[in-house]
Amino acid sequence: MKDTTEKHVESNVAESAAAPSIDDNPAQISAENVLEPETETKEIPATEMPDVVVELRSEFEQIKRSFAKQNEENADALKMLNENAQNFYKKMEPYLQRLDKNVFVLGKKSSDVENALKGLHGECLEKREQFIKEQSDTIAKQQDSLKELSGAINKLQDCMTRYQNDVLFKAQKEILEDLIQLSDQVRCNILDQEQNQNYESLLDSMKQIGKWIDASLERSKMHKFEDCCHGNTTIDKKRQEVVDIEETESAEKDGYFVTRQPGYLWTIPLVGSVDTMLSGNAPQTFEFVFRPEQVVKLKYKK
What DSSP assignment string belongs to 91-140? Predict the structure, then answer.
């Protein structure tokens, strides 16, 4: 084995020596001589190879067979995968076609919905503009009504002011005239008493003045009333008030109420009755107790 290896090495060395060298003559070496392998390859018998080479060759052949087997298995698996993919596509093809159809229908419906939304949006805008216009017209009418109402209120205020001033003037005028006449009567009585010294005439004059004052109050719608002039056991707190308690020697009059000063009831027109004033009719009246009747309570003195 050793002799064979040595012979093989010597043969390779001889061949290397016979081969042209680049350093000897670079121009004579062509690309074909460098790139093209030898056409004839001599296979070295296994008996002439070293043990390491034999082992490497054996392992290489084993790896080669393993790769070949794996390639066959991969080819079978790839073929099976291809068949499975084709079968899966055949099964899924109706669903894919249906999905395409549904997508088409959905796209069409989406377009219809979009058109409907556009129409609805336009209709909403139109209704909103119409609503705004109606509200603007309503507000304008309300403003006109407010202007008319404001004018009517101003006229009413002027009317009430004139009416109030007229009522106050008439009331003050009558009171002033009555006071002037009362002053005239008192002055005349004083002059008459200074000249004649007639006290009986003075008493009559004072009685006449009292009647004249009551008549003046009546003209001003101030009515005199005496509910307890004959004595009562009860009183009306809305019309009467107790101003004092007096003793009496009569047991029968114990607890009675007797008038000391009359009460006065005043009747006045309702200034707030606007409709009546504007229509020219007689105004309504309002009656209330101007001064309650002043009474005293009798208490039996034992």
Answer: HHHHHHHHHHHHHHHHHHHHHHHHHHHHHHHHHHHHHHHHHHHHHHHHHH
Mean pLDDT throughout 121-135?
88
Indicate the residue type of 137.
Answer: D
173-183 pLDDT per residue, tens: 777 777 777 77
pLDDT in tens, 35-46: 444 445 555 555
* CA angle 260–262–268, rounded 5-degree value: 160
Closest C-alpha among 15, 1, 9 to residue 50:
1
Determine whether 65 is exposed, middle or buried from the number of CB atoms within 10 Å of its CB (0-12, 13-18, 19+).
Answer: exposed
Question: How do the domains of the chain map onto residue ranges?
Answer: 221-302
Put simply, whether the predicted model's pTM sits higher than 0.90 gets the answer no
Structure tokens at 50: 């070293």
CB-hemisphere CA count at 13 Å for 59? 6
Asked which of 1-10, 76-85, 241-250 is least confident by mean pLDDT, the reply is 1-10
Q: Is residue 221 left, alpha or beta, with left meaning phi > 0 and alpha meaning psi from -120 to 50?
A: left
CA–CA gap between residue 63 and residue 69 (Å, rounded): 10
Rounded Cα–Cα distance for residues 29 and 11 (Å) = 23
Q: How far apart are CA 198 and CA 154, in angstroms?
A: 62
